[in-house]
Specification:
Layout: H1 2-34, E1 36-42, H2 44-59, E2 63-64, E3 67-75, H3 78-86, H4 91-94, E4 100-102, H5 106-119, E5 135-142, H6 143-148, H7 158-166, E6 184-185, H8 193-207, H9 219-230, H10 239-251, H11 255-258, E7 261-265, H12 266-273, E8 292-295, E9 301-304, E10 309-310, H13 318-331, H14 334-342, E11 370-371, H15 376-389, E12 393-400, H16 415-429, E13 435-441, E14 451-459, H17 464-472, H18 483-496, E15 503-510, H19 521-529, E16 538-543, H20 547-559, E17 563-566, H21 573-581
Parallel strand pairs: 1-3, 1-4, 6-7, 9-11, 12-13, 12-15, 15-16, 16-17
Antiparallel strand pairs: 2-3, 4-10, 5-7, 5-8, 5-9, 13-14
């Protein structure tokens, strides 16, 4: 009886605790609903630090009048936010609308003003967008390569990149034929600041001065920029794609074969050398055996000045602007500026902190020319010119049509439906002179091939609509998923027809599962990671499934020095396909 009474008392106490928890949750929800919400859209390299700083600031219980303030930081690529703000923010696909936009550089605010002006809609930016920290664009090289070019005493720039890129002997001219051709890692200038600044920097180097509108059609200038682009290994939506792959290559003692230089922020050089390729709050890996070191382009370089723009958008009210102003003051305070310095940023006025030192691969005494972003119309034309000047692609798109691709996804539709949508969008965005082929794959009878060709790898040109029609007619089958076998075959197919003047790659659109006689992932990863350097084919994977399913695609992409993306619902597909295409 006593035991029953005790159990009853315990159950009653538990019930009271649960009621209290529910009431407390309700009170907290009401309090947060009453708080002034300030959403900050932040570029990647500082987002983790800003999240931590915002948490500390919220803990101070800041107020606007009688209302509390709640700062939230969302990580978003600068180009992605610029596009969303230029075309009117859509919360369904773009997420919570920001009160503050902090892209990596003022260049993006210049583009936003220009794009909104072109559309005839009001500006949403304030007259000034003060910097909260800075980091110049550098050309980061594995230290042995940099030393062979004279680092740290000799200045190197885009003209030297061009000389190495144009030389068919590559690193032979520096007495290192074993390093092969000069390979540049560079991000896509439509989404990434380092890619945009590298493109602008190449135009400055080509002209020897501030470019004019006429320079963009000058044959010698066009040839200079195009030839720099020709040395690109592949593009990407963020520098971290290259750094993750480089660290993996370093583990295999192959870092000098993967890439010769990467255009990136100075801060990211220090992060990589710490074993932190994703610029998180703390390193997640051991440091690399071979450091990266920074060249500051001798022709001058642009600086990622990380502006803080409080938006004058319709969804921002006076209370939010006041709260955002107060948080900006907090970011410029001495203790917070010290936190930025300890994360390898320079201060808001460009002064180097304790992490900017030679032993970290960067130079505190750098005093080179700082280039300013061109005016809006010219910067817009430069960015647009990249579509004509970029290195062309040679892509085989392999679409999974096995039974798991018939499963439903959040937001409606099926996994195959998302894949078809993504493939059609890719065909729309690629250039007519990109080479594209399409395969489908699914398990079938023992004597049939696991994959079938819908269209051969050939110039897209007039085939675009026909391929889109074939893709639109696809439906999921009942067979299993021969992911590993298809990946092997697709990579081999592209390698046998390799074109060194293009970005040769496979795009996998898959559930991420493998159910097939070929179930040896370890061997597949070995094959992908030991390809001949002269015919290396990268795999870029898009997984339509769970995060666990995406792990396999991630391993495949990383082994091949590609990148992987997850499309887990219908709301994210547009962003995912934009990220995939940023590699080409």
């Amino acid at each position: 009886m006593r035991a029953l009474r005790q159990r009853s008392l315990n159950e009653r106490a538990l019930a009271v605790t649960l009621v209290f928890a529910v009431v407390l949750d309700g009170i907290l929800a009401l309090l947060f609903a009453w708080c002034v919400p300030v959403v900050i859209a932040s570029s990647q390299e500082k987002s983790a630090l800003l999240v931590e700083i915002a948490g500390d600031y919220n803990a101070l219980r800041p107020r606007v009048g009688t209302r509390c303030v709640r700062i939230t930081v969302n990580r978003m690529a600068s180009g992605q936010v610029e596009e969303a703000l230029a075309t009117d923010w859509d919360p369904r696909t773009d997420g919570d609308p920001p009160v503050v936009w902090s892209p990596a550089a003022t260049s993006w605010t210049v583009l936003l003003r220009q794009h909104r002006l072109s559309r005839g809609v009001p500006d949403v930016l304030p007259p000034t967008t003060p910097s909260i920290m800075q980091s110049p664009l550098v050309l980061a090289m594995p230290k042995p390569m940099a030393v062979s070019l004279g680092w740290p005493d000799k200045a190197v720039g885009w003209s030297d990149v061009l000389t190495l890129a144009r030389d068919s002997g590559g690193w032979t001219r520096e007495s290192h034929p074993e390093w092969g051709p000069f390979r540049l890692g560079k991000t896509n200038p439509t989404v990434s600041t380092s890619g945009l600044h590298a493109l602008v920097g190449a135009y400055f180097a080509a002209t020897g001065r501030a470019p004019t509108d006429a320079d963009l059609t000058n044959p010698s200038v066009v040839a200079f920029v195009r030839d720099v682009e020709s040395s690109v290994v592949h593009y990407g939506d963020s520098v971290s794609t290259f750094l993750v792959n480089l660290l993996a290559a370093d583990r295999r003692n192959e870092e000098l074969k993967y890439v010769s230089a990467i255009a990136m922020e100075e801060k990211q050089v220090v992060d990589y050398n710490d074993g932190n390729p994703l610029s998180l709050l703390h390193p997640t890996e051991l440091p690399p055996k071979t450091q990266l070191v920074a060249f500051y382009p001798k022709e001058g370089t642009l600086v990622a000045d990380h502006p803080y723009a409080i938006l004058g958008a319709p969804w921002v009210d006076a209370s939010q602007r006041e709260a955002a102003e107060a948080f900006r003051g907090y970011l410029l305070s001495e203790p917070v500026q010290l936190r930025f310095a300890n994360a390898a940023f320079r201060s808001h006025d460009g002064a180097p902190g304790p992490r900017i030192k030679d032993s970290n691969g960067v130079l505190p005494g750098w005093s080179g020319l700082v280039l300013r972003p061109p005016v809006g119309p010219l910067l817009e034309r430069m960015q647009r010119s990249w579509n004509d000047l970029r290195k062309r692609a040679r892509i085989l798109i392999a679409i999974d049509v096995s039974a798991p691709m018939g499963e439903s996804v959040t937001g409606g539709g099926t996994k195959l439906g998302l894949a078809k949508q993504a493939a059609a969008a890719a065909l729309d965005e690629l250039a007519p002179d990109d080479d594209v082929g399409v395969w489908i794959f699914s398990g079938g009878a023992a004597n049939t091939s696991a994959w079938r060709e819908l269209g051969p790898v050939a110039p897209l040109a007039s085939r675009r609509e026909a391929l889109k029609s074939l893709i639109g007619d696809l439906s999921p089958g009942s067979g299993d998923t021969p992911l590993y076998a298809t990946t092997r075959a697709a990579v081999r197919h592209v390698a046998e027809r390799f074109d060194p003047k293009r970005i040769d790659a496979v795009i996998l659109m898959t559930s991420g599962r493998n159910r097939d006689r070929d179930d040896d992932l370890t061997d597949l990863l070995r094959v992908l990671g030991s390809q001949p350097e002269g015919t290396w084919v990268r795999v870029f994977g898009v997984t339509y499934g769970t995060t666990a399913d995406a792990s396999t695609t991630e391993q495949i992409a990383r082994a091949s020095r590609g990148a992987a993306y997850e499309a887990l619902d219908s709301a994210t597909i547009r962003r995912v396909i934009a990220a995939v295409l940023s590699n080409f």
